[in-house]
From TrEMBL:
Pfam families, per the entry: Lyase_aromatic
Any GO MF annotation of the entry: ammonia-lyase activity
Gene3D superfamilies linked to this entry: Fumarase/aspartase (Central domain) (1.20.200.10)
Organism: Klebsiella michiganensis
Highest taxon in the source lineage: Bacteria
Keyword Lyase: yes
Protein name: Histidine ammonia-lyase
Keywords: Lyase
C-alpha cells in the first residue's frame, strides 16, 4: 500500500506511553525491518491513512483492553461466588449472605472486550478495502492481472465488511439491559451470559476478518516482486503459502479463508511473529 513507518517512531509513542500502544509500535518496527518495498516508497506520501498510521494506537488500545479483561477473568476464575458463603472460624461455622454471585465484573469486562474487537475488526476491514483498491494501493485492481478478465480478490473484502458490520452490532453492551427477577429479590442482574456469547461471536468474526486481510496482503506482496518485503512479512508469506497458493485466476476463495482461519487458530503464525519481535 506504499506506506511508511514514520507513525511507528519510538519518539512519538514515548509522548503517549500507553503500554499497548508502545508495545505494538515496537513490534511493528521490528517486524518491518529490512523492507525493500518500504524503502522504495518511503517518500510516496507525507502520512498514511489512519488504518495504517494508527495501528499502534488502535491495536494498542485493544491490547490494553485484552489485558484488562484477562485480569478481571483471572480474578473471577479464582474467586468464590456462591451465596451464601460458609466460613469456618475457630471451629465455628459462619453463614455469610452476600452478593459475590453478581456477575457485573465479568459482564462489564466482556462488553468492553466486544467493543475492542469491533475496533480491531473495522481497522482490518479498512485495510482489506485499501489494498484491493488500485487507486489507493497502486497495485492491480483486486490484486489480479488487469489483462486476465478475472475478479481476483474483489469478493473477500465484501465478506470482511459484512463481518465488521456484525461486530459493530455486537459491540452494543448487554450489561445495561438488566431486568428484575425472582419476585423483585434479584432486581438487578448482570446479563453476563449474553455479554459472553456476544464477545465470543465477535472474536470468531474478527478471526475471519484478519484471515481475509492476510489473504489479500499475501496476494499483494507477490505484485511487488522482485522487491523483498520486511522480515516479518516474508516469514508470514512463506508460512501462508504452505496453506494457500497465489491466485492468478478466479476460484472459490472460502477454502482459502478457512485455511487461514485455521492457521490463525493454531497459534503457530502468532508464535513465529512474536519470536521475531523478541529478537534484538
Amino acid at each position: 500500500m506504499r506506506g511508511n513507518t514514520r507513525g511507528y517512531d519510538a519518539r512519538l509513542h514515548a509522548l503517549r506511553p500507553h503500554p499497548g500502544q508502545q508495545e505494538t509500535a515496537q513490534n511493528l518496527r521490528r517486524l518491518l525491518k529490512g523492507s525493500e518495498i518500504l524503502a522504495r516508497y518511503r517518500d510516496h506520501r507525507v502520512q498514511d491513512a489512519l488504518s495504517l498510521r494508527c495501528i499502534p494506537q488502535i491495536h494498542g488500545a485493544v491490547r490494553d483492553q485484552l489485558a484488562h479483561c484477562r485480569q478481571i477473568m483471572t480474578i473471577e476464575l479464582n474467586s468464590v461466588t456462591d451465596n451464601p458463603l460458609f466460613l469456618v472460624e475457630e471451629d465455628r461455622l459462619i453463614v455469610m449472605p452476600g452478593g459475590n454471585g453478581h456477575g457485573a465484573p465479568t459482564a462489564l469486562a466482556l462488553d468492553a472486550l466486544a467493543v475492542a474487537i469491533a475496533q480491531l475488526s473495522t481497522a482490518s476491514q479498512a485495510r482489506c478495502d485499501r489494498i484491493t483498491n488500485t487507486h489507493l494501493s497502486g497495485l492491480p485492481a483486486f490484486l489480479i492481472s488487469p489483462d486476465s478478465g478475472y475478479s481476483g480478490m474483489m469478493i473477500p473484502p465484501y465478506v470482511a465488511a459484512a463481518l465488521a458490520g456484525d461486530n459493530r452490532s455486537l459491540a452494543g453492551p448487554a450489561s445495561i439491559h438488566t431486568v428484575s427477577t425472582c419476585a423483585g429479590q434479584e432486581d438487578h442482574v448482570s446479563m453476563g451470559v449474553a455479554a459472553a456469547r456476544k464477545a465470543l461471536k465477535a472474536v470468531e468474526n474478527a478471526v475471519d476478518i484478519v484471515a481475509i486481510e492476510l489473504l489479500c496482503a499475501c496476494q499483494a506482496l507477490e505484485f511487488h516482486r522482485p522487491l523483498r518485503a520486511a522480515v516479518g512479512s516474508e516469514a508470514t508469506l512463506e508460512r501462508v503459502r504452505q496453506a494457500v497458493p497465489f491466485r492468478d485466476k478466479d476460484t472459490l476463495l472460502y477454502p482459502d479463508i478457512h485455511a487461514l482461519r485455521a492457521l490463525i487458530h493454531q497459534g503457530e503464525l502468532s508464535a513465529m511473529l512474536q519470536a521475531l519481535c523478541e529478537e534484538e
